[in-house]
Amino acid sequence: MIKSLALAGVIAVMSAIPAAADLIKIPSQKPVIETMDALQAAVEGAGATVFARVDHAAGAQKVDLSLGDAQLLIFGNPKLGTPVMQADLRAGLFLPLKVLAYQDAEGQVWLTYEDPAEMLAGLDVPADAEAVAKMQGALGKLTAAATE
């Protein structure tokens, strides 16, 4: 009886903790702003739409707090995102795609994003969906172009 209650408790706690999606990190030798400029140029050059560019450090400054260089680019392409959302509208919680550029405590600049397959796991989106594979490929190419 006690073992059953303990097991039930562990299962309840583990269910309440969201699984972290795989984060893909690509190093950049450029500063955050230059890396993000290059990423934005690559995204726009590929025909995708940039919806927003968020400067987290500037936001922190507005409330008299400090934060290291960090910018988020939010972008997408309806040709890829729409089929995913047709499979499960909850995918709209994760789309459009996002890539974070930031400088870590050691001074290394990174581009980081969630693997779309992991990000959409648990939804009614087939794991082998062509659009998801294309998102993975696009993110790989765009971030590689931005860090060259």
TrEMBL record:
<feature type="signal peptide">
    <location>
        <begin position="1"/>
        <end position="21"/>
    </location>
</feature>
<feature type="domain" description="DUF302">
    <location>
        <begin position="54"/>
        <end position="116"/>
    </location>
</feature>
<protein>
    <recommendedName>
        <fullName>DUF302 domain-containing protein</fullName>
    </recommendedName>
</protein>
<dbReference type="Pfam" id="PF03625">
    <property type="entry name" value="DUF302"/>
</dbReference>
<keyword id="KW-0732">Signal</keyword>
<dbReference type="InterPro" id="IPR005180">
    <property type="entry name" value="DUF302"/>
</dbReference>
<dbReference type="InterPro" id="IPR035923">
    <property type="entry name" value="TT1751-like_sf"/>
</dbReference>
